[in-house]
Protein: tRNA-dihydrouridine synthase
Organism: Gemmatirosa kalamazoonensis
Amino acid sequence: MRFPFPVAAEIPLYLAPMAGVSESPFRRLCRRHGADVVVTEFLSAEGIRRENPATVDKLRFGEDERPIGVQIFGADPQAMGDAAAFVTDVFQPEFVDINFGCPVKKVVKRNGGSGCLKDLGLVADIIRAVSRSTHLPVTVKTRSGWSEETRDPVGIALHMQDAGAKAFTLHARTRTQMYTGHARWEEIAAVVDALDVPVIGNGDIKTPEDVVRMQRMTGCAAVMVGRGSFGQPWIFDQAKALLRGEPMPATPAVEQRFAIALDHARMVEAYEVDPVGAAIEFRKHLGWYAKGLPNSADLRRKLHAVKSFGEVEGIFGDYLTRLQRGDFGDAPTGADDSSELESAAA
Ligand SMILES: Cc1cc2nc3c(=O)[nH]c(=O)nc-3n(C[C@H](O)[C@H](O)[C@H](O)COP(=O)(O)O)c2cc1C
């Protein structure tokens, strides 16, 4: 399936847009560990067109993140078009993605995100307005419907394709479901059958094996990984190998895992202007990196109190010394605990 922008992989792996997580340093890290395409967290069209400094700041990205999409949300077609024009002129990403999936109350109450799903006429107006305002491909990300009663992923997808969407990402849950229940992968398969444009499958990928299962079950052109990347960016490299029919690279052992976490921390330190705020914000990532490790409750408690990146190195060093001394018994050292990952994202 031809993508609307150049991408090397046969079945590209996307890092999902995630507010507060898929920021520039994490996007770069995931690109280094095998993600083929990244997307910014959702950004308000009003904030962009008014050049709100906090919003514009989140538009910064490095060349090593490309191909990258900037995701925008809003319910006013004119504002969405203006935002797309600004993003195109100033930042030149590979594509502009429209968020029609966000379930958060503050957003849907103004008809942004999945709120738009209640008015498909408005959805089409937004896609057309954005497409008129940029020469870049315009893609969309949405859910299966607003509620169980109005669940209609194929109808929604065809409507968005007709309005000009050049690729379609489905998180196969409704807005009312938020993050409960399961993503219905059979809905992704139905949309793949119905559309001419590439479909990106999304929802409940927790392991590299899940990537292969989703792709085989649905025939989707690409797979998007969200919460499954938390604390384990190497999931992309592992999934890639499996998709190619090659043996899966081993899950990094504790020492390598800490080295990757520190690499991530250094990128955050270089990117953010407020070092204390950045270290505090980074605590959630540290918690995810520590999940499933022996004696992880104690490790996480320490990591959740850090106020500087320097402290992290010390905590990791102490932990490794104790691990090597055998203080934690002979518990496994590299196992991932996906049930913990799930609860972290709920
Ligand atoms: C913390 C968090 C923030 C998110 N922010 C966004 C966002 O900004 N834009 C968006 O389209 N989806 C957002 N999502 C939804 C994800 O992109 C994805 O659709 C969802 O998590 C399902 O995929 P997963 O099961 O692989 O996590 C967010 C999800 C999480 C957990």
